[in-house]
Amino acid sequence: MAARLLDGAAVAQQIRASVAPRSAEFAKKAGRPPGLAIVLVGDDPASEIYVRNKLKSAGEESLRAELERLPATASLEELLAVVERLNRSDVHDGILVQSPLPAAMGEDAERRVFDLIDPSKDVDGLHPTNVGRLVQNRAWLVSCTPAGVIELLDQSGVTMAGSRAVVIGRSDIVGKPMALLLLHRNATVTVCHSKTADLPQIAAEADILVAAIGRPAFVTRDFVRPGATVVDIGTTQVSDRAVVERLFPPESKRRAAFDRRGSIVVGDVHPDAAEVAGAITPVPGGVGPLTIAMLLKNTIAAAEARLTSGARRP
Ligand code: NAP
């Protein structure tokens, strides 16, 4: 039997609907809309799309979102100076620096940038203070994608307490916060990565299986326990026709989309896994819209906190 589709777009819409009145209320009290600054360095095509979507969505919920653009040739010092200026700004409640940064900025560039962002404006939840608070289960700014997944599981009636959860991927922005959030919801959590032995067997023990790897269709049906809930966070742009033809049947919507555009986004989970899973998130339309909705929610939360207690530090 085909798995139930978990409708991330619908849950994202609900979250956004709760942001709009809070934005209006904030604007009434503060005399300005909540402000989000997005910093984009270079011209990575995928980042351009993500940033455009974030700016558009923020505008739709009455937030004032501004793009700060730096050329790919910008130095790390220039980027740090922009972050310092935004930290001091009275009209920017949230700061998001889009990753990845250009490789020329150096290996530790992202860490240095995230370390510098004022934790009370850190709407990506990547500052060590916010990560520490997450570990202690008292975070109020949490990485958007995993926070969105928890909302989706809640809204979809998926029981986390007592469940066995497996997260594949251990990045700072997705895998690790995902694992911590599931742990705080009383799941028993295993984190897998590229060095994990017997990965399919471990995955197949999960009641809730989360894939955050960035390898198209890596999670095949043998990774999935029958009836499990599968969350596909991965998004990889695939332009190889042979790969698309292997994954999607000729008359499918995905093939049609590929024929139109010459590339499509493919998740980490193989389409066949839907025949085994009990519930599954689609790609696209699953986790992606939730990430943006949670960014807006974090921004309004940061704005409200600054309004009620000055430039509050967490
Ligand atoms: P990342 O930083 O590249 O991390 C990937 C993780 O996957 C690493 O922990 C890596 O293990 C693990 N991995 C890679 N190959 C593996 C393999 N063969 N077997 C097991 N584990 C493997 O990526 P990320 O930022 O976490 O993002 C993951 C995916 O989610 C990407 O496709 C990204 O585009 C997508 N994403 C989507 C959204 C959304 O809104 N839908 C948001 C964020 C990210 P090691 O640590 O051992 O290297």
What is this structure, in a nutshell?
With 314 residues, the chain is of the alpha/beta class. Helix content is 42%, strand content 15%. Helix 6 (144-155) crosses helix 7 (175-184) and helix 6 crosses helix 11 (288-309).
Description:
The protein has 314 residues and is of the alpha/beta class. Helices cover 42% and strands 15% of the residues. It has a 6-stranded parallel sheet. It has a 3-stranded parallel sheet with strand order 3-2-4, sandwiched between helices. A two-stranded antiparallel sheet has the order 9-10. It binds NADP nicotinamide-adenine-dinucleotide phosphate (NAP).
Task: Produce the secondary structure layout.
Elements: E1 4-5, H1 8-30, E2 35-41, H2 45-60, E3 64-70, H3 76-88, E4 94-97, H4 109-116, H5 128-135, H6 144-155, E5 164-168, H7 175-184, E6 188-192, H8 199-203, E7 208-211, E8 229-232, E9 236-238, H9 241-247, H10 253-261, E10 264-266, E11 279-280, H11 288-309
Parallel strand pairs: 1-11, 2-3, 2-4, 5-6, 5-7, 7-8, 8-11
Antiparallel strand pairs: 9-10
Helix pairs in contact: 1-11, 2-11, 3-4, 6-7, 6-11
Bound molecules: NADP nicotinamide-adenine-dinucleotide phosphate.
